[in-house]
Write a structure and sequence with these properties.
The chain has about 70 residues and is mostly helical. The protein contains one helix and no strands.
Length: about 70
Amino acid sequence: MKQEPKIKALSGGSRSGPQPPALADLRAIRLAHKATNQRVEELKLRVFRMTEQHMDQAVSLIRRWLK
């Protein structure tokens, strides 16, 4: 599985602290977020298909038992 680059956390605090992330950092965070969301959707679809297949198998077994 491909690993995403480490992303710096956004700090929400003091003015004397670290500077806000650069535009390039924000773009990298957004791209990583989009890739993660896409992977989550793919995995959800895969789980749905597997569940559907197993339910079909269960229904088929139950019908055979009832015959």
